[in-house]
Specification:
Elements: H1 5-10, H2 38-58, H3 64-71, E1 83-84, E2 102-108, H4 114-129, E3 136-144, H5 151-162, E4 165-168, H6 179-190, E5 198-203, E6 207-208, H7 210-217, E7 225-228, E8 230-231, E9 242-243, E10 247-251, H8 252-260, H9 262-265, H10 272-283, E11 288-291, E12 296-298, E13 318-320, H11 325-334
Parallel strand pairs: 2-3, 2-5, 3-4, 7-11, 12-13
Antiparallel strand pairs: 1-3, 5-10, 6-13, 7-10, 8-9
Helix pairs in contact: 6-8
């Protein structure tokens, strides 16, 4: 490929070392060393070259510095999806403890909500990177088939960079027209060879505090389980109605049942959280239920506006209805989410 002069200037910091052309031999004085013949030079250089090759193959690790220098000159590695398994630093032995369980969180959103996904990647990515989670967590953003030309370019860019998107080709974008059913069915199919213990459906306007969620969910049975915040708002009985659509989890066996049973397949249209509760009631599923209230609630609003909300509490698992950035900022501030920020000459934040 031809390169412009600007390209050469941009790569000044990454230039390769080149051998300078040999200088013509200096004339020997009457007291200098005699000049070596070509054959004599070869006899001197040959052992040195041999020694260099031996060092290269016996100690290949010494040359990893070259790879690091190449990566700083513009080579990049593919970014993985947001995931949290027992984490360790480079060079440390693998952790002996296995995750307590595996959780898939499917954040149901819309393809055009690029800014919201960016925020959620930061919120969940920071929690996953902390390394203090006892379970394996994967976060995926879920929407139906792409229908606009810009989506067909921008979404593939996200997939290339983050690898955390599931596109449900079997549905058109909707809220209560079968998208949740399509998600659970797709999860059962996509992860059949490596199943999770739980699959959670979550809205994109909810803040999940992962350590609290995992501690709560970890106490649940691994089979026939249904976890969330009960509806109606005033009820604490998980068997009365159903779990709020803000976020609820099903155990893997229930997810498989959803994907194969005619009960949910024939009942996909309607308020999605209520339909899920109806599936389980008609199919006799979800006998192990857990209500996470009051630790799961809506953003604090006056009671006449939202009866499912209350003030922030320290043991919060989830805050719902974070419809705009000011609400997100207030919520994250309450939980001191930026406490890890170190002082720096590059910014001053009051």
């Amino acid at each position: 490929m031809n390169r412009s002069s600007n390209d050469d200037e941009d790569d000044d910091d990454c230039v390769e070392l080149e051998l300078l052309p040999a200088m013509p031999p200096a004339k020997s004085s009457k007291h200098g060393f005699p000049k070596l013949s070509a054959s004599s030079k070869a006899l001197v250089l040959l052992p040195l070259l041999l020694l260099g090759f031996i060092y290269l193959f016996v100690y290949p690790k010494e040359f990893e510095l070259q790879e690091l220098m190449m990566s700083s000159c513009g080579q990049t590695t593919a970014a993985g999806a947001y995931t949290a398994a027992p984490r360790r630093l480079a060079g440390e032995p693998p952790a002996s403890r296995k995750p307590d369980f595996r959780l898939l969180i499917g954040v149901l959103t819309r393809a055009d909500n690029y800014e919201r996904r960016h925020l959620l990647r930061m919120v969940y990515g920071l929690q996953l990177a902390a390394g203090d989670l006892t379970a394996h967590v994967d976060v995926r953003f879920v929407f139906c088939r792409l229908y606009k030309d810009d989506q067909r370019v921008l979404v593939p860019l996200e997939i290339l960079r983050h690898g955390d998107i599931i596109v449900l080709d079997e549905c058109e974008e909707n809220l209560n027209g079968g998208k949740t059913y399509a998600f659970f069915s797709a999860a059962a199919r996509l992860y059949a060879d490596d199943p999770y213990d739980y699959v959670m459906k979550a809205d994109d306007d909810i803040f999940l505090r992962l350590p609290r969620l995992l501690a709560s969910l970890g106490a649940m049975p691994r089979e026939d389980a249904y976890y969330g915040a009960t509806i109606p708002c005033g009820s604490m009985d998980p068997f009365r109605e159903y779990m709020s659509g803000m976020a609820y989890a099903l155990s893997w066996d229930v997810v498989e049942w959803v994907a194969t049973s005619d009960v949910p397949r024939n009942r996909t249209v309607g308020p999605e959280d209520r339909m899920t509760g109806q599936w389980l009631r008609l199919g006799g599923r979800g006998k192990n239920r857990f209500n996470a209230k009051p630790a799961m609630y809506d953003y604090p609003l006056p009671a006449p506006v939202d009866k499912c909300s209350h003030e922030f509490i320290p043991d919060t698992i989830a805050v719902h209805r974070l419809k705009d950035n000011p609400r997100w900022a207030e919520t994250l501030k309450y939980f001191n989410f930026t406490k890890g920020l170190e002082p720096s000459k590059f910014y001053k934040i009051n």
